[in-house]
Amino acid sequence: MEIERINENTVKFYISYGDIEERGFDREEIWYNRERSEELFWEMMDEVHGEEEFVVEGPLWIQVQALDKGIEVLVTKAHLSKDGQKFELPIPNDKIKDIPVDGKIEDLLNQHFNLENSDEEDSLEEDETLEFLLAFNEFEDVISLSNRLGLDDLVTILYNFEGRYYLFTEFPEDLFEEDEIDDILSILLEFGHETQVTIHRIHEYGKEIISANVFFELRKYFS
Questions:
Q1: 96-107 pLDDT tens trace
Q2: Which residue in 7, 39, 47, 174 has the fewest CB atoms around it within 10 Å?
């Protein structure tokens, strides 16, 4: 995949259909299967984050162009206008290539970036256990994290997938208060970063390194 950083708010990347298929996706399903297209998109965004440190925050403006041998995607972070009434692009129009948006993939992706996300919030409120998956570029970052206090009560599993390390953790509702979860997540995010790669993909294609008590096990061997 080719990545070009336009500025701090915008990144452009190109991925060939061959690369798409090597990642386990069918070139047809990314246009007609919303779940699979989102999975591919977030996998690409995770790679963009790793190479360009492009952190996804808030709503995104996305342009997608279907080319003969692949697709080109332009992603820009949008900001609220000063009056708080609308979202604006933080770059001049003459700095952005006028890329025609393919309606099919736009329809598949735009629901994921709905600003209200009410269905997702409702489902989180109903869940008894909150689950998080964090990515780490270096194994040393996971080791450093294991030395922080107050994390051993977490349900944790460590995976390796495509050269990165992924920590899966759970927060049972009956064991953690909301403030405790916020505090722990702030510690985790000092060493890792959020990822949109799904735990289902990690389960299927990743390698499980430590199946439980990740931090305790790491301290045993890397104290």
A1: 344 344 444 444
A2: 174
